[in-house]
């Protein structure tokens, strides 16, 4: 009887370990969201991107303890991995800041002097080299029209027409 209980305990522990391992793998999903807004009458296009802080730290190699150093590293990484074209022309954007918490980091930036938008193309390669399953969701609200694209490794760019 004792051997049966011991055997059952081993099987139960193995089953629990497998379930915990499977659950952990299922929750290891890497995403970011970016909101792009431009309204008629406005002169700038605004961007706000949200990332898991731990993922962003891994990508840039700098922690959030020193805000100035973190912002500098984030801006450098953003400029290398996030490119915007409006009406087929690459545009520069002004990085404003990162707003961080232990769980999430939001990046704020804008393209100034925008007057007319018919197409937007974005190359968003943020975190795709760090995480093979990274997906970057980009939601547009431009001229009161909504569009969305998703970028990922091997498909880092997307284009929408308005």
What does this structure look like?
The protein is of the alpha+beta class. The protein has one domain (30-161): Immunoglobulin-like, CATH 2.60.40. The chain is built from three helices and ten strands, in the order αββααββββββββ. The chain has helices at residues 2-27, 53-60, 67-81, and strands at residues 31-38, 45-52, 82-86, 89-91, 94-100, 104-111, 119-124, 135-142, 145-152, 157-161. The strands form two sheets. It has a six-stranded mixed β-sheet with strand order 5-6-2-1-8-9. The protein has a four-stranded antiparallel β-sheet with strand order 4-3-7-10. A hairpin with a 6-residue loop joins strand 1 (31-38) and strand 2 (45-52). The model is unreliable at 12-27 (pLDDT under 50). Pfam families: DUF6702 (PF20420). Residues 1-22 form the signal peptide.
């Amino acid at each position: 009887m004792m051997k049966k209980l011991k055997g059952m305990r081993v099987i139960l522990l193995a089953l629990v370990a497998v379930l915990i391992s499977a659950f952990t793998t299922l929750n290891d999903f890497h995403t970011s969201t970016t909101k792009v807004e431009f309204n008629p009458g406005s002169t700038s296009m605004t961007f706000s991107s949200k990332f898991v802080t731990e993922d962003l730290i891994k990508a840039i190699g700098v922690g959030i303890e020193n805000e100035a150093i973190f912002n500098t590293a984030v801006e450098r990484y953003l400029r290398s991995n996030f490119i915007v074209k409006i009406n087929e022309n690459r545009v520069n954007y002004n990085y404003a800041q990162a707003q961080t918490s232990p769980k999430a980091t939001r990046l704020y930036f804008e393209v100034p002097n925008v007057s007319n938008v018919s197409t937007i193309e974005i190359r968003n390669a943020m975190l795709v080299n760090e995480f093979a399953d990274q997906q970057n969701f980009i939601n547009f609200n431009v001229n009161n029209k909504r569009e969305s694209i998703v970028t990922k490794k091997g498909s880092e760019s997307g284009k929408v027409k308005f």
